[in-house]
Structure formats: C-alpha cells, structure tokens
Amino acid sequence: MSKNKTAGYKGPHGYQKRKEGDGRSCVRYKCGLTNTIQDVLRQRPGWMEVKDDGEWDFNWCDVGWLRENFDHSYMEEHVRICHFRNHYELTRKNLMVKNLKRYRKTLEREAGRIEAAKCDFFPRTFELPSEYHLFVEEFKRSPGSTWIMKPVARSQGKGIFLFQKLKDIMDWKKDGSRSEEQRDETQVESYVAQRYIENPYLISGRKFDLRVYVLVTSYIPLKAWLYRDGFARFSSTRFSLTSIDDQYVHLTNVAVQKTAPDYDPEKGCKWQMQQLRRYLTARHGTETIEALFKDVDNIFVRSLQSVQKVIINDKHCFELYGYDILLDQDLKPWLIEVNASPSLTASSQEDYEMKCCLLEDTLHIVDMEGRLTGREKRVGGYDLMWNDGPVYREDVNLETLGSACFTANTHLGCVNDRKKQLRQLLKPFPGKKRI
Amino acid sequence: MMDEGTELSLTIAQIVQRLKATNLHSQIERQAKECLHRPEIQLESLKEDVRNFLKASGWERKLQNAVYRELHVNWEKRILKSLNSMCTELGVPLARKRPAVEQKELTNKWNEMGTDEPDLSRFRPVYAPKDFLEVLISLRNPNHDSSEEASAKSHWGLIQVPLHDRDIPQMREAYSELSLTTGQLGIDDHTHVPPDLFESEHILIGKKVVNEQDSAAAQQYSRQGCPTGLRADLWALVLNSTNEPEDVMHYEQLKAGVIHHDLLVDNLIYKDVKLTASNDDYYFVFEDFLYQVLLCFSRDTAVLEHFSYNSATPPKSYIQGKVGVEEFAVVYPPNGVIPFHGFSMYVAPLCFLYNEPSKLYSVFREMYVRYFFRLHSVSSSTSGIVSLCLQFERLLQTHLPQLFYHLREIGAQPLRIAFKWMVRAFSGYLSTDQLLLLWDRILGYDSLEIVAVLAAAVFAFRAENLMEVTSLTSAEAVLADLSTLKVMPLIQIFLFATVI
C-alpha cells in the first residue's frame, strides 16, 4: 500500500519505455521473506526498509500476503510488487495443465497440428477427482505404466507419491456410489495424476531435473527474460523403477533430498547449469544440445503464452518464476512445474552467490532507479527472451531481414560474465560515483 | 606411516654403497681412468675436468638414472611393506576368491557400487603425495659437492638434482601455438569475442580432423584447445584409444576378474573414491564409474608393460611363506600400481567425456601409461615429477625471485604447496572446464611440462597476496581455491609476457 507522499517524482512515465533519468534515488521497500532477498535488498544503495504499515515503493511479498492485501491496495504508478494477482494460473499444477490444454486446442484449430505439437512438453495429466474417469480411460490404455500423484497446491515435494495400480488412488475416485454425506465428510484434496516419465536422462545412473529462472515483467505485451545460471538437482540415489516407494529416488527437490537417510549436505546434489550444458555437449555434440536448449526455450514461451490472456496484467507486477524441467533419454525436455516463489534459501556458498546475483539482476530489470532505456537485450545474467515476439541475438534490420539465420537471444547454461556487462550497461546509482 | 629425514638419508647412503659394487660403477671408474689421457684434462682442475667429461659423454646421466631407479625400487618396497603390514594387522588377505553368493551380489550391483557402504575405517591410504615429496627431496646427487651449495647460484628450492630443463625462451619456441597472437580455446572463445575471429574456424577444422581420423593432426590441433563437442573424439584419436570388440572383451575380462577375486587394494580404491571424488561438487555423480574403472584397472596386467619404459620395477609380493623365492613372486596388485590418496582424481574428469565404461577405461588406461604414471614415480624423464618440480622451482626462482625468497624465509617453500597440484595434474583443484583445457595441451604437446608452467603461473598470479603473508598456513590459504582460475590466460601471460 502506498500513498502519494513521496518527494520528488510526479507525473506519468511511459509504461515500457521509461525515459532515462526518471527514477527514484530513494526506494522504500517491504520484504516478507527472511532469506537471500533480504540481504540483496538491504545492500542495494538508496533502498530502505519500511516496517509494518509504512508506505512502500517496492514489495517483495509472499503469495499469502498478496492474496490478502493485493485487492485492497492502491498502488502509485511507480510502485512495484513481485507477483501477479492470479499467478496461480501458471503455478498451480491443475490450472497450468488446464491452460496449456486449452491453448493447445486453440493452436490446433488456428495453426494446425504441427504447431500444436510444439505444446507437447507436458506429460498426460488429469485433475482428480474431477477428471477421474478420463484418467481411468488413459490409465487403461497404457497397462503397466507408472503415474505420479501430486497435490495441486503444495510445494517442496510434499504429498507426492507414485503408483501403478488404480487401487492406490481409490480416495480420489469420483463416482455416484458415495453418498452426499460421505463426500462432504471426506473432502479430498485436489491432486493431479501425471504420467511418470519412466526413461529420464540419467547421469551415472542418477536422475536429475533442471531449475531455470524466468522473469516476466509484463504479460500484455509479453516480455520475458531468461537467466543464464540455474542448476541441475540430482537425486541422491540411483534411479530404478523397481522401488517406486522410495521417494528419494524419484523426487529431486532439494527439500526432499535433505531428509533422505544418506543425504550428506557436504555432498552437494547440484550442478551449475554451465556444468550440465558442458557435460551434455561433450557427450552429444554442440548441435544436438543447441537444439535441446531451443526446445527448452519453447517451453517457457509457450507456457507463458498459454496464460497470457488469463493472467490479470498489471504494470505494477513482475514475477520471477522457477521452472522445473526434466530431460528424458531422447533428450526431450518436459515441463514438470512452474514455481511462483522459487526457493531463495541458499544450500551452499556457491548457491548463495548465484541467488544474490539473480536477485540483483532482477532488481536491475525492475529498474526502480530508472537507469535503463527499455531497449536492452541483456541485463547482467538475464537475456531478453521474448518481447511481444521472439528476440534474436542478431540485430534485425532491413539488411539482415533476408537472412534465414537468426539465433534466439537465450544463453541458458552459457558463460555469465554479468559483472562486466553491468559495468558497461548501467550508470552508477543515483548519488553514487561509478566505482 | 612414512619416516622422513634420517631414514631416507640412510637409504641414499645405502644406494650409493650398493652402486659402488655394480657393473655401472666399474665402467665409470674405467672411463674416468681412461679419460686422464685426454688433452682437455688438466692436472690443476682434475676433478672438475673429469666430471665435465663424464657429463658430456653421458655417463653421469647413466649414474643418475641408476640412482633414480634404485630409489624408486626402494620406495615401492616401502609402500608394499606398508601394504603387507596393513594386511597382517587387519587380518585381511592381499587377495581372496569370492564365494559364489558374493559374486552374484556384486554382479547385480555392478552399476551402483557406490551404494555399498563397506566399513573402511580400518583402512588407510598407503601414502599421500606429501610422503612422496619427502622422498624426492631426499634425492640429492651423490656427487654433489657440499661446497657448491654455498655459491650464489645455488638452487633455493627443495629439489637438488642437476636435471636439465628448459628456460622461458626455449619454451616460447616449443609452445609457439600458445603465443599471444595465436587463437586459443580458453581465451578466444569467450562470449565477447566474435566467434568468426577464431572459434568457428577452429571448430570446423576440428570436425575435419575427427572425420579423417587423423591422430597426428588431432595432436597438433589439441595444442590450441579442443571444442567441448569434439573433445571426446579428439582425445581418443590422440591416444589411439579404440572401442573395438577386442577392447570391450578385454574390459569384460577384467570385470570378471573383479567379480571372482577381492583384492586388498580394492578397499583402498573405495576409500579413495569416498574421500575425494565423492566429496567433490562436480565429480560426486560419477562415483559408480570410478569404481568400475579403478577396480578393473588394478587387475590389468597389460599396464605392467609400461614398466618397460618406466625406471621402476613393479612391486612384488610373495605367496605365503615363500618370501624371496622368485618362483613364488607375484606382482601385486596385478597391474603393478598401488593407488595413493587422490588417485581416483585421474579418472574423474574423464567421466565428463566418456560414459561407456569400456571406452572410459580404454582412454584412462592410455592416459595413465603415457602420462599419469610419471607423476608418482621417480625418474629422470623430462615429463617426470622430479623434472616438473625442478622446472617449477627454477621458473619461480628465475622470474619471481623476490616472491620465492620471501616464501622461503617464512617457511613456505613453494613446492610444498604446488606439489599436490602437479601430482594430480591439477585434477580436483581447477574447475572441470579449465582442467580439460589444460589436459588438451598435455595431449597436444605429449608432455606434462605445462603442468609445471601452470603451477609457476599460479604463483605469479597471486604474487601480490603472497608477498603479504607471514606463514605457511596463510600462504596455503591464498592458494587454497583455484576454482576460479582461467588456465590459458595465466599460462600465456607467464610464457609470453614475462620480461626476461
């Protein structure tokens, strides 16, 4: 909540194309979390924390706060908050699937089957109990298959289990045989049943998934940035389908791994994205892996497009998503989940530094200080991936237009020389000399 | 575990005594007597002239080699003795046939041996690099005149042997492909350098080399670095490592050997992997591969062939009760290599490139018999660890004398810090991508010399901080973390931008 009592700035400024020089030298922020983001905000020159009911220009809140307060807050033009009102359209598993399925249908109708097939990056998923019968049909079509049940609204791997027999999910059965009372009493939590990827890509017998960071500053028009760093999270035990009860094998969330009996925090179950990319390139060759990362880019873009019309666009909002991607043995990437509040707690010194840089660069892009022109294609470790259309590395002009060879402006897992880039890009903070 | 100081000097004295009785010694004596007739030998400078003559005609070299050989044999005997006593202490046999049940279990678990948690607390590594360093330090030329040590040109370092090594001008010629004006991977493939300046062209050439399966070209090519996507193929080419059915079969036979017999050294391997690679952020994932390679490696008698050009003879063990009787001597372990603490790090980086066990094995074995073995045996080879140590110390003394002097004064002999890097060819100290760029050049130049150059370059890079430290511990702290270093710029600057 913010009232217009701030000194200095008055008047409109353009939504996307902020003029240089329009910015605040003093930013009052509110922060609902007590991890890395706290440190980053505290260290930012000219930013001051406000407590309790103080007026703020910037709010890094948790989704709980958002739910309770967003609708009752009036925000000045310049104010920024780190979530979109109904982000859950993308981040709740059942809604994400619903939106993706609907988007896919539209694409098929409007652009044909091949185009629609580009959305086939999520495994067959059904919401239970509402889609129970549809699920059973699919289940029977693939005998012997393994499925994973995930609670719609929980995180960190809680409540997830695998099953191969229908009897394991009887609680979610939707049928007329249960009386009204029975149904009222035993309100079942909403789950999704998803086809389990049985042939994940393994490194030395171990399963892993990818955590990638995508920053969206606007949905209409869609403007999204992709961070170069990320990581691969390994399961601490070897992969095997014979032990589907062993959740430690199958779930790669660090939160779950931390409770596994042989978890060794010193071990570090993560690889930096650069490490993974180099490993894959060494094993499969540059072209194959470039194609893989292109497919990964496709996941981000399509998933965001699928909710573009549903998300309540608001110029005050930006959101940092944590995408979870799984690779299978054919090097096909699958979308597992999108997180609106990716964990900012650091699991190691290296992890801490990475997250600090990620958050610093996020704040650079939100640009409360007004140092950007709005025409940048790269800010620190972020590359502009989509700006109401694909963004290319090459400058698109009349001369190059004829050329067929444009490369996407994404560098996931590539060298992140952000310090150097920032030095060249940004003017010093208002009131501070350039170092 | 290992004694220092007096026991070693005693050993050297014994070696010298023993050599006095050898054929070599009498040959040299005869040569010395005969050369007295030569015109260049003057009475006034008799000792000096005779020595110079012997040096020039190669006899001194032969004597040196004999000393090295003796010392290495001695060293290996001590390791083996340590192994044998561990065996007696723990009541574990050196080798044991596995019962059928155990064999079956191991076969099933072959791909996930890392899940085993055997009790390894009683086992200790047989030796660590620093023990080996003490042995090398004790290596002084028995001909060395103590009066020479007082001279100003004396060597400040720990290694006191008169081996010949190259100075920077000579290295500039030898490593011309690393010069400032030549494109390099590890420098010119950075994001801000347009790829068409070097990288794209280099990759195209690399693809051609791989297609034509040209081993010599691959070696020359590697000098400028191997592109990530081509490295696995290029290295296999340079090493002439194939994955033909014969190779696969050989590997399978070794694997069968592992299943049938349990060796004491297996426990040393497990321990080493658990202590080093498994704790490494990058290599922990490859734990299982490491067992699959190293356990087979121990049983590979083909590795013994390399001893024909190593100055060492393999350690021998004797069937129970028949110690000293040659017919009952067996080489133990079968490949003649007793693993030391950190040995698994020779294999770990290769897991990045090869994930078929037989291929990984083939490449590793070749790397070992060409290069790695030289890092932990005593020889006079220019790629040998003794040479590398000397090279490192000389480079430092010549080009960073102030630093070297300062470190010596505070009790932080540079070699004591750099030794562990060199013994492992920097594996586990550099980040993986940088390590692979370094190993590209080892293959490209068919020499480990670059490892010594890098060690000196690291000291040069951190010289400012090192000048400020006042103890060995703080010096070690300054050099504890090499994971952010970029090796090619460091080497390039050291070789080509140092003022001489």
From TrEMBL, chain A:
<keyword id="KW-0436">Ligase</keyword>
<dbReference type="GO" id="GO:0036064">
    <property type="term" value="C:ciliary basal body"/>
</dbReference>
<dbReference type="Pfam" id="PF03133">
    <property type="entry name" value="TTL"/>
</dbReference>
<dbReference type="GO" id="GO:0015631">
    <property type="term" value="F:tubulin binding"/>
</dbReference>
<feature type="region of interest" description="Disordered">
    <location>
        <begin position="1"/>
        <end position="21"/>
    </location>
</feature>
<comment type="similarity">
    <text>Belongs to the tubulin--tyrosine ligase family.</text>
</comment>
<protein>
    <recommendedName>
        <fullName>Tubulin--tyrosine ligase-like protein 9</fullName>
    </recommendedName>
</protein>
<dbReference type="GO" id="GO:0000226">
    <property type="term" value="P:microtubule cytoskeleton organization"/>
</dbReference>
<keyword id="KW-0067">ATP-binding</keyword>
<dbReference type="InterPro" id="IPR004344">
    <property type="entry name" value="TTL/TTLL_fam"/>
</dbReference>
<dbReference type="GO" id="GO:0070740">
    <property type="term" value="F:tubulin-glutamic acid ligase activity"/>
</dbReference>
<keyword id="KW-0547">Nucleotide-binding</keyword>
<dbReference type="GO" id="GO:0005524">
    <property type="term" value="F:ATP binding"/>
</dbReference>
From TrEMBL, chain B:
<dbReference type="InterPro" id="IPR042507">
    <property type="entry name" value="TBC1D19"/>
</dbReference>
<dbReference type="InterPro" id="IPR035969">
    <property type="entry name" value="Rab-GAP_TBC_sf"/>
</dbReference>
<dbReference type="Pfam" id="PF00566">
    <property type="entry name" value="RabGAP-TBC"/>
</dbReference>
<dbReference type="InterPro" id="IPR000195">
    <property type="entry name" value="Rab-GAP-TBC_dom"/>
</dbReference>
<feature type="domain" description="Rab-GAP TBC">
    <location>
        <begin position="225"/>
        <end position="446"/>
    </location>
</feature>
<protein>
    <submittedName>
        <fullName>TBC1 domain family, member 19</fullName>
    </submittedName>
</protein>
